[in-house]
């Protein structure tokens, strides 16, 4: 490596990012591109000879950036946030430059130990039960997974193996394959697709139980399902509850679910991928109810802690249940301190063998922002969502679909689904803001999520003006369509009626 | 974000890395640390107020670096390489700063399209069969997974679901759970632990078939196992072959395995995590034999392509087999171009939903090094390993355990396993170089792997001098132990015999 060139390239890239991020509001959040537009601008093979990094940055600016959806823009209001921060960005630089892997303690001790430290920091910050701390006596602790999907899958797989072992202990006459064929798991019909996918991957049917009208899954629904299944000879394995569903940020009733899970010895996992950040706030302490009775939970740091994806925190009440399920060691992975201390070899806590030094970016982000800064960030998202909610409520053409929850507002233009679809399509075509829609009980709605590295009150006003003005335009155009339909109707005997309808429409919407 | 501070922190971190990487030979490759040493130096909670980034870099230097095993050091000769490069390090900085996710085309078109481009670049560079290219007609293509473990697991899971569907089509009378209970998979007893783990996770027993004396798994062994299993009513699902086993970098006989897999309609996956890099070299073209008949393969770019972990390339002959197995969509993930083009929504090709913009670091690395630079890097590792091999062969106290393969030399001091163990422990205690041992047929041996960002011939000499001088010292000490044993023996009637033995020993080793 030529360090002079590395220096120049590095410094130029820092400037590149400052230029990109400081000017991100000037870009349409959605790209003006069509499939293959980027592919067709690039050569078909690796260049035989090295190219100068300046050429690469030029193409990044001219070919790649125009093809991106800008997730760090405050006008990105889709999905949930995937936010970054200075500390986290520089953290990734340092992780890559230092370039260690941390699958066992010996293969880079500080990599494992810093993860133990930051997971305990985070558990305390989020006021989680003490048994989730590495520092507590007992087999609990936290680990950084790559994504919520992986955390959920780890919980499902570990619960599966525990259930098989435990059932066969009490029913040695039943074959392993028969036990596996009778396993069943539970979640809400509001839960994230990754939970259904975990069921597919684990080869366990996951029953997506109906949430209530308020989108909440409760113990009574779970209990009924488990009782049905047990009566039919099934073996319940795990329930995955959600705190902050993807559709409406609903909070499943963890307390009543945990009581049922304890009764039937079912693993309870909580997917708090989004809402977990609010555990840190005293005003949101209700969200933590029942967490002392769950077996595992996960929270995505990119959603509220300004640590860039990928970084999904997972805590286990008894990590041995995962380790015992996943351990397949080889001599080349052994080391002399193994099993002699409470420091985990995290490879047994996850699906892959290899693991990046993700704890470093967490450590840098937390230190450079401080606990106060992290709490303020969550509070800011809540305040901005409240601001947006007020704007929705004040405009009688719109209706709320669910209560605002943290940084999410679920709303729709009144009327049938078609208006929602058309409004969203219009907004997507204009590319000024980016939302996605969701559906519940046949009713489609829009999800406005506060995202971005640095959203401000003026960004909320910008988004609202875009939304409401596009609805106005849409309504005007629709009335013109009706007028045209009326003109066709001139030719019919219904002329007078159509004209009346049209006028009514115009009056109402203009 | 305060961009002035970001600039200062960023530039200082670039300098930090230059300082670290340029001086990496001055550090012991293994840290002088004990469990909890890092944990005990750090505070127990997130600081309430932000700290200055200078404090963070200071602690990184004084607390974290001394606790690390230095994977980028040329004195790191353990496992397999996990190498980085300037382009890749800066690539991670840019990935984090741009901060997009790419689970569907619309959620960041260039993220998906650049991955299509670089995976085709890499497939051509490695001279893979054309059906693995996105640009070819048909359902094949490449995707970046997080690790080899995940790639193998994706193959095993997709093969499992295909096998269940296919068996039930021809045997509708057999229940799904019975089919699942009869599945079986195959690999070699030399394959990486991640393959056995994939079996555990997928709930399929993986039979680790005995490799030959030369560590190679061949079709005849597989055929015999499959015939036994089919006769016993089992349903063979997948065989995971390895090109470049972890122990000795042996190459399974893909041609004969593929013939058997075709005969029995068994998915053939090739784990070429390490050796895949050599596909690019004409002089290694034998390694590619039979690849036109495999269903999927994976190759780790951090092992030979100077793209830092995580970045595991995987190619599928028919990606629909994975997509059909894993697809669990929701309305909020839909977009208007979906299914209209051949551009994949990569979330269906992998386990997690979220995905980083890893293609960017691949693109930057490949362009800044060029195809020639990448080939030269692989060739350099081979040359350095040859240099090491010569040193082993010339010293009659050592023996080779397997033929040198690419950048790996498997060797041992002659004698029983205890000498190997003691020599390695001595080297580990001195921390100058880092190797791990492996075992085959009861015989333990050392693996010397060329690793690091920038290894040179002088680094090989350094390592060899360390190894052979430590064996000399070990032998001297052992002879002293024998002398002491002799002194104790003074008290016995065997005095004269022991003294003679001792003298013989001293003469031999001094």
Automatic annotation (TrEMBL), chains A, B:
<dbReference type="GO" id="GO:0005737">
    <property type="term" value="C:cytoplasm"/>
</dbReference>
<dbReference type="GO" id="GO:0019752">
    <property type="term" value="P:carboxylic acid metabolic process"/>
</dbReference>
<feature type="modified residue" description="N6-(pyridoxal phosphate)lysine">
    <location>
        <position position="303"/>
    </location>
</feature>
<dbReference type="InterPro" id="IPR002129">
    <property type="entry name" value="PyrdxlP-dep_de-COase"/>
</dbReference>
<keyword id="KW-0663">Pyridoxal phosphate</keyword>
<protein>
    <submittedName>
        <fullName>3,4-dihydroxyphenylacetaldehyde synthase 2 isoform X1</fullName>
    </submittedName>
</protein>
<dbReference type="GO" id="GO:0030170">
    <property type="term" value="F:pyridoxal phosphate binding"/>
</dbReference>
<dbReference type="InterPro" id="IPR015422">
    <property type="entry name" value="PyrdxlP-dep_Trfase_small"/>
</dbReference>
<dbReference type="GO" id="GO:0006584">
    <property type="term" value="P:catecholamine metabolic process"/>
</dbReference>
<dbReference type="InterPro" id="IPR010977">
    <property type="entry name" value="Aromatic_deC"/>
</dbReference>
<keyword id="KW-0456">Lyase</keyword>
<dbReference type="InterPro" id="IPR021115">
    <property type="entry name" value="Pyridoxal-P_BS"/>
</dbReference>
<comment type="similarity">
    <text>Belongs to the group II decarboxylase family.</text>
</comment>
<dbReference type="InterPro" id="IPR015421">
    <property type="entry name" value="PyrdxlP-dep_Trfase_major"/>
</dbReference>
<dbReference type="Pfam" id="PF00282">
    <property type="entry name" value="Pyridoxal_deC"/>
</dbReference>
<dbReference type="GO" id="GO:0004058">
    <property type="term" value="F:aromatic-L-amino-acid decarboxylase activity"/>
</dbReference>
<dbReference type="InterPro" id="IPR015424">
    <property type="entry name" value="PyrdxlP-dep_Trfase"/>
</dbReference>
<dbReference type="GO" id="GO:0006520">
    <property type="term" value="P:amino acid metabolic process"/>
</dbReference>
């Amino acid at each position: 490596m030529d360090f002079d060139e590395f220096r120049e390239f590095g410094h130029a890239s820092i400037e590149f990012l400052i230029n990109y991020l400081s000017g991100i509001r000037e870009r349409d959040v959605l790209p003006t591109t069509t499939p293959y537009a980027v592919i067709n601008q690039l050569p078909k093979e690796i260049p035989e000879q090295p190219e100068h990094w300046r050429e690469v940055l030029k193409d990044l600016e001219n070919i790649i950036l125009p093809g991106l959806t800008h997730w760090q823009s405050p006008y990105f209001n889709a999905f949930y946030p995937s936010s970054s921060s200075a500390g986290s960005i520089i953290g990734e630089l340092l992780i890559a430059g230092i370039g260690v892997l941390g699958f066992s303690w010996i293969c880079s001790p500080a990599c494992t130990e810093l993860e133990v430290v930051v997971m305990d920091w985070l558990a305390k910050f989020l006021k989680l039960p003490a048994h989730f701390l590495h520092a507590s006596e007992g087999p609990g602790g936290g680990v950084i997974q790559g994504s919520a999907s992986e955390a959920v899958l780890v919980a499902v797989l570990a619960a599966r193996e525990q259930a098989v072992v435990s059932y066969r202990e009490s029913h040695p006459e039943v074959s392993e394959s028969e036990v596996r064929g009778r396993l069943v798991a539970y979640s809400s019909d509001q839960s994230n697709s990754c939970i259904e996918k975990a069921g597919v991957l684990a080869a366990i049917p996951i029953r997506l139980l109906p949430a209530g009208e308020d989108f909440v899954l409760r113990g009574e629904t779970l209990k009924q399902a488990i009782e049905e299944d047990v009566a039919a000879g099934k073996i319940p394995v795990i329930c995955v509850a959600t705190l902050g569903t993807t559709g409406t940020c609903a909070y499943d009733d963890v307390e009543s679910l945990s009581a049922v899970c304890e009764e039937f010895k079912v693993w309870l996992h909580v997917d708090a991928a989004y809402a977990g950040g609010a555990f840190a706030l005293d005003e949101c302490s209700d969200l933590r109810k029942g967490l002392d009775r769950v077996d595992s939970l996960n929270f995505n740091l990119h959603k509220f802690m300004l640590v860039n994806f990928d970084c999904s925190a997972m805590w286990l009440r008894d990590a041995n249940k995962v380790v015992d399920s996943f351990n397949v060691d080889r001599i080349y992975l052994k080391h002399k301190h193994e099993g002699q201390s409470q420091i985990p070899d995290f490879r047994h806590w996850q699906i892959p063998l290899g693991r990046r030094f993700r704890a470093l970016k967490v450590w840098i982000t937390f230190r450079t922002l401080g606990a106060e800064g992290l709490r303020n960030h969550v509070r800011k998202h809540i305040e901005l969502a409240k601001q947006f909610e007020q704007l929705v409520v004040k405009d009688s053409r719109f209706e709320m679909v669910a209560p605002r929850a943290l940084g999410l507002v679920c709303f729709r233009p009144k009327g049938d689904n078609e208006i929602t679809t058309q409004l969203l399509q219009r907004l997507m075509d204009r590319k000024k803001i980016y939302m996605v829609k969701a559906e519940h009980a046949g009713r489609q709605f829009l999800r406005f999520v506060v995202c971005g590295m640095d959203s401000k009150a003026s960004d909320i006003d910008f988004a609202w003006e875009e939304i409401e003005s596009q609805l106005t335009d849409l309504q005007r155009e629709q009335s013109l369509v009706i007028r045209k339909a009326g003109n066709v109707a001139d030719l019919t005997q219904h002329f007078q009626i159509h004209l009346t309808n049209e006028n009514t429409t115009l009056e109402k919407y203009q």
